[in-house]
Amino acid sequence: MKLLDERLWSLFRRHCQQTLTYWSVFFSFGLCIAFLGPTILDLRCQTQSTLQQITWVFFSQQFFLLVGSSLGGLFKKTLLSSLSALLFCTLIISLVFAIIPLCHNIIPLSIAMALAGSAMGVIDTVGNLQLVKLYQKDSAIFLQALHFFIGVGALVSPLVVDPFLAESNCVLGANWTTNSSSSSDLQHLRSRIAGQGAGLHNISHDSLHTEGVVITRVSYAFWIIALINLPVPAAVLALMYHEKLLPCFSNGPRLLDGDSVSSVSPTGADAKGHGSLFACCNPAKLQGQPTTFFILHVLGGAVLFISDGIIGSYAGFVYTYAVLPPLLMGHKTAGCLTSIFWASITAGRLAFIYLSYRYTPSRVLTVSLVGVILVQCLLLMFNTSCAFLFIGTCMLGLCISSVFPSMLAFTEDILDYKGCATTVLVTSASTGEMMLQLLVGSVINSQGSYAFLLSCTVASFIGFGLFLLFLYAQHIHRNTGSSNNTAMEEKPKPGGS
Question: Is position 495 within any domain?
């Protein structure tokens, strides 16, 4: 049995270079997601800052990722502006990796991470927008592949940095022989703050040297990642050349000016919507839309707010949960949980490339969200089992992996690829990833480690409830659209008999 039918293969071959370029750009996105957690202690040494100070770079990256996501739709009006934005952002990412070793103070490092976060946000919105615009009703399978490459980048980045991480305290004070941290203690601390934003809640009582001789080789890792990322802007530049979008090579008709434009944008979406999050609120663009049109945007964004929030919270706090009572898991063993979670998300997205072809997005989403609830309930029931924590972590990653790309494809399809669905959904997901981590971290601090599983379980039930409301709103929206079409057909023409 073929993975794809001939029509989809033909569609992919037609847009092969564009699709592969967008996939490579999301690989660049993935590189940025995963490098900060493992290197944060070495960056603390490099900037000679406290643990409390250095973990604010997490917030800097996450906050500006949210800003970039909300503004990313501004670059969608033409293919030139979209590709120019992707070229600029991927170059920014390589530049940030190259200059991070030169940041010897927490302020320039935070600024560099803010730049990286903004670039990531723009990439997230523009990449999803362009792929949805390219494939429209067939976009689900290609969106799964797009988000699979985030996982590939997130797996590559820690592998590159691991050989260059300090094995002991990398700031040696005058009395370092008696007070420096052992290798196992440092590994424990590194794992505790590996989840994005998690360090803000988990290290308030930890302290390390801030004055002394800095011994770290992590600079080499950043320079290697910068070089690994350079082929990505080169691929974007090659696509711009192929589409005759470069000023030096703009003679002759553009490849997208002919039939492909009408096939790519049959609904006029390029002219009507997908602006920034703020442009989506323009009253002139919203007139004449039924109430369900807005409700679907809100509910779709709310589902992704919850699902991406669960991903961020679980990745950020599963280590903390594992090393605390009742599990009291070893530090090295618990440190594998976050890697297993991200690996299972990557594997799940690879598997859902095929499943998205075989089944509708609504069915994929229903099975995925029910699976998330079942896994969370099982984790609560077997909360004292170390073995099941590993099994549940893997199962949770597999179940939740398809929610974002499937929800994006489903919502855009319902709304006929007009409006601001992609921008709203991407921004909502980024907001949820940042806000739920802060909420779950606060709950863990006040209620104990068991509240971690309980919070994620409650969130999964809320997410499924919102999805059921989304399906109900879709049903009403479809009936409203059918009624409007029938009324238009029955309305007598002027001058008719």
Answer: no
Would you say residue 488 lies in a domain? no
Q: What is the DSSP letter of 258?
A: S
Total tally of structural domains belonging to the chain: 1
CA distance 303 to 309: 10
pLDDT in tens, 343-400: 999 999 999 998 998 899 999 999 999 999 999 999 999 999 999 999 999 999 999 9
CA dist 33 to 124, 192, 225, 398, Å? Answer: 12, 17, 13, 19
State pTM to two decimals: 0.82
**Residue 53 pLDDT level (bands cut at 50, 70, 90):** confident
Judge whether 494 lies within some domain. Answer: no
CB 372 within 8 A of CB 344: no
Query: Rounded CA gap, 155 and 158, in Å?
Result: 6
Contact of 407 with 361, CB cutoff 8 Å: yes
Domain assignment present for 487: no
Tokens of 16: 């092969």
The residues, ordered by sequence, that sit 6+ positions from 290 with a Cβ below 8 Å of its Cβ are 477, 480, 481, 484
* DSSP symbols for 327-381: T---HHHHHHHHHHHHHHHHHHHHHHHHHHHHS-HHHHHHHHHHHHHHHHHHHHH
Domain interval for residue 54: 6-482
Q: How far is CA 122 from CA 26, 58, 118, 478, in A?
A: 11, 18, 6, 32
Nearest to 422 by CA among 16, 110, 130: 130
Cα–Cα distance for residue pair 347/484, rounded to 1 Å = 43
List Cβ neighbours of 215 (8 Å cut-off, separation of 6 or more).
45, 166, 170, 171, 172
> In Å, what is the CA distance from 375 to each residue of 197, 315, 383, 463?
24, 15, 12, 14
Q: How many residues does this entry show for the chain?
A: 497
For residues 128 and 123, give the distance between their C-alpha atoms in angstroms, rounded to a whole number. Answer: 8
Quick one: which H or E segment has residue 172? strand 171-172
The pLDDT tens digits of the residues spanning 323-340 come to: 888 888 887 788 788 889
Taking only Cα atoms into account, the Rg of the chain, rounded to an integer number of angstroms, comes to 24
Does 1 have pLDDT greater than 50?
no
Q: Report the alpha-carbon distance of residue 115 to residue 108 in Å, rounded.
A: 11
Q: How far apart (Å, rounded) are the C-alpha atoms in residues 109 and 88?
A: 20
Average pLDDT over residues 166-173: 62
Query: How would you class 183 by CB atoms within 10 Å of its CB: exposed for 0-12, middle for 13-18, buried for 19 or more?
Result: exposed
Q: Tell me which residue of 243, 194, 180 sits closest to 15, measured CA to CA.
A: 243
Q: How far is CA 448 from CA 197, 280, 390, 440, in A?
A: 18, 41, 20, 11
Collapsing DSSP to helix, strand or coil, 269 comes out as: helix
Q: Give the CATH number for residue 374.
A: 1.20.1250.20
